[in-house]
Write a structure and sequence with these properties.
Oligomer: single chain
Number of helices: 18
Length: 674
RNA sequence: UGGCCCAUGGUGUAACUGGCAACACGUUGGUUUUUGGUACCAAAGAGUCUAGGUUCGAGCCCUAGUGGGCCAACCA
């Protein structure tokens, strides 16, 4: 890795620093350690992106480790799904490993802990233990079994392993300090009895290690150098280190846990438990429902690995709580699809258009460019005839000059075809438009190069030939939740914010080339958005998912669309700030400026000072001593005011005195001017 | 009546050993355009939570406060 133009995030700074002081690059190793108890979601892509991204950056191996220490919640299905998702994102792990691979080693180490007098078997109820544990503000107390002999502990622990006891009868705890300020250090549990079959080890074990006892030791066994996790594990770090202290030997890499803020996305939830509830309650149709924030959901929705990786890269890494606006995710997928998706024509809300002067029995196959952003994409043929579908939205009987689409008496172009002119409408008895009659100019065919074809018209419409059109189902998705932060309301459940109209089924008409479309293929329906072929789709029954709409600056013109709620009013363009405020702002950076620029700022201040009243200035006499720049600006302003005839008073004199006595030469200079 | 972490435009992230607060999204205007898309140009928007301190100079260092988050599962 040579010089980077991009700045480093705080984790990269830590690693760069470690590289300088304590570890060589070939010892760098990372891991991504999901628990296989659910599907991966967009939040996980951040963790994945950090660890695998570091692996790519430093050419270091990254393990995919399944943290499977709780057989009650974990399943093979999730293991498979996680592997598929990580691969799909384009990351390559070094080893596929499981915490359960280390059960024997973990057990042996626990025995050692007992022998060292650092672990004991506790035989109380969980309630009793919770009682003794204290609270964050009150220390805990020692329990009655804390001082069992090594022999007794060993015997009990072995019998726990042998299956002699029921769940809950005994547990093994580390013997640390029940009075510790960190509650995790108050004799944490390291083994519990769980008479459950494990998805990998079956019934070999009936005692299972806890997270804290497993994680750092697994990192150590794999020689992970930097163990990155989210912020809520910060308090665990002390315990992580304590456990490591018990077994680390020299010349082995000692893993470091470091924590970053997890990703939150507006208008969605990120908790596996809650996501599971959406699946189980039938709110969505499975973990890969295109409305889900899961990786598999995004994949089915039409997102690309490129877009997701770009997104993760863009949101950055820090320790500050954050909520990323979905618009950034949408930007990332549009950016990718704009470059790669072939353009086609589809009409989602059809109205019939008849070209009255076009021969009834004529068909034409017109040339259409597949993707103007990609020269290699080539061309295809689309059929044209007398009767077409266009979007209902694209016609108005009359409209103002801001409407660029079809109206009576005005011309628009049909994409890849002719220029037409609105002539008349046919309505049913309720006044609904059933047909639009137009005439076309035969000399205006796209690409024909004739003078007429080069004529500028304001609008271009997409269309499909009714005779040739293919019916397709389009699934249009809206956000699943109507609240920006559905699971952060104390008084309401996230289920209260479910959007009942998050899925809309549309019968659309698409150009015939789409019968060839394969599952997963992505297209831009021109002027509408990006769509992909769902895996429920067949060539007889085409089904598309709407990935995301095109950016639509026209929609904002229309009054009925609600304003984006999380966008605030642009502040009035020239707020006309008060002179004193501007002076204060100038002052702030005054002392740090190069001479030339400082002179200019000084001149500006002196000019602005003409507009300042004494009442505005006086409060600033109390400016903190450290804000030298502001005090200089105030001094300059004062000079002007005095010159303009302001009477001196005690406050002014005192302020000048203090200026003269200051250590800053610039301030002293301006004070002496008076 | 605790401990730890965090605080920079609307959002997110930068600013290396203190030295003219930058980039992206979003917003607004314009140019181009056979997609009201894309591309391009431009603009507005923060003086860095507050109060003190150190310093010639603080977003960055120190102190105190305020606000937010995390910590009391035989979950991870």
């Amino acid at each position: 890795m040579s010089e980077e133009t991009k700045s480093l995030n705080f984790i990269e700074h830590i690693i760069e620093n470690d590289l300088k002081t304590e570890i060589s690059q070939d010892k760098l190793r990372f891991r991504f350690p999901p628990e296989p108890n659910g599907y991966l979601h967009i939040g996980h892509t951040k963790a994945i992106g950090i660890s695998f991204g570091l692996g790519e950056r430093y050419n270091a191996p990254v393990n995919l480790r399944f943290d499977d220490t709780n057989p009650a919640k974990e399943e093979q299905e999730y293991v498979d799904a996680i592997k598929e998702d990580v691969s799909w994102l384009g990351y390559h792990w070094d080893k596929e490993v499981y915490s359960s691979d280390y059960f024997q080693q973990l057990f042996d180490w626990a025995v050692q802990l007992i022998k060292d007098g650092k672990a004991y078997v506790d035989s109380q109820s969980s309630e009793a233990m919770a009682e003794q544990k204290g609270t964050p503000t009150q220390p805990g107390i020692d329990g009655p079994f804390r001082n069992r002999t090594v022999e007794e502990n060993l015997d009990l622990f072995n019998r726990m392993k042998a299956g002699e006891f029921n769940e809950g009868e005994h547990i093994l705890r580390a013997k640390i300090d029940m009075q510790h300020v960190n509650m995790l250090m108050r004799d944490p549990i390291i083994y519990r009895i769980l008479k459950k079959s494990h998805h990998r080890t079956g019934d070999t074990w009936c005692i299972y290690p806890m997270y804290d006892w497993t994680h750092g030791e697994s990192d150590y066994l794999e020689q992970v150098s930097h163990s990155l996790c989210s912020l809520e594990f910060k308090p665990h770090r002390e315990l992580y280190d304590w456990f490591l202290d018990q077994l680390v030997v020299e010349d082995q890499v000692r893993p470091k846990q470091r924590e970053f803020a997890r990703l939150n996305l507006s208008y969605t939830i990120m908790s596996k438990r809650k996501l599971l509830q959406l699946v189980e309650d039938g709110v969505v149709n499975g973990w890969d429902d295109p409305r889900m924030p899961t990786i598999s959901g995004l994949r089915r929705r039409g997102y690309t690995p490129t877009a997701i990786r770009k997104f993760v890269e863009t949101v950055g890494v820090a320790k500050r709580e954050n909520v990323i606006d979905v618009s950034l995710l949408e930007f990332c997928i549009r950016e990718d699809l704009n470059k790669t998706a072939p353009r086609v024509m589809a009409v989602l809300d059809p109205v019939k258009l008849v070209i009255t002067n076009y021969p009834e029995d004529k068909d034409e196959w017109l040339e259409a460019e597949n993707n103007q952003e990609d020269d290699s994409a080539g061309f295809r043929q689309v059929p044209f005839s007398r009767e077409l579908y266009i979007e209902r939205d694209d016609f108005k009987e009359q409209a103002n000059s801001k409407y660029f689409r079809l109206t009576l008496g005005k011309e628009v172009r049909l994409k890849n075809a002719y220029i037409i002119k609105g002539e008349s409408v046919v309505k049913d008895e309720n006044g609904n438009i059933t047909e639009i009659h137009v005439s076309y100019d035969p000399d205006t065919l796209s690409g024909s190069g004739t003078e007429a074809s080069l004529r500028k018209v304001k609008g271009t419409l997409h269309w499909v030939s009714i005779k040739h059109a293919v019916k397709a189902v389009v699934r249009e998705y809206d956000r699943l939740f109507m609240d920006e932060s559905p699971d952060s309301h104390a008084d309401k459940s996230f289920m209260d914010f479910i959007n009942p109209e998050s899925l809309k089924l549309i019968t659309a008409f698409v150009e015939p080339s789409l019968t060839e479309a394969k599952v997963g293929e992505r297209f831009q329906f021109q002027r509408l958005g990006y769509f992909n072929v769902d895996y429920d789709s067949t060539s007889e029954n085409l089904i598309f998912n709407k990935t995301v709409g095109l950016r639509d600056s026209w929609a904002k013109e229309k009054p009925k669309t609600e304003p984006n709620p999380n966008q605030n009013q642009p502040k009035s363009n020239q707020p006309q700030r008060k002179a004193i405020d501007v002076i204060q702002q100038f002052g702030k950076k005054y002392t740090n400026l190069p001479d030339a620029k400082r002179e200019k700022i000084k001149a500006d201040i002196l000019e602005l000072a003409e507009k300042v009243s004494y009442d505005e200035l006086e409060p600033l006499f109390g400016t903190a001593a450290k804000k030298v720049g502001t005090r200089i600006a105030v001094m300059l302003t004062l000079q002007v005011l005095l010159k303009n005839g302001l009477e001196r008073n005690d406050a002014i004199n005192e302020f000048i005195e203090k200026g003269l006595a200051d250590g800053n030469a610039l301030l002293v200079a301006e004070a002496s001017e008076i």
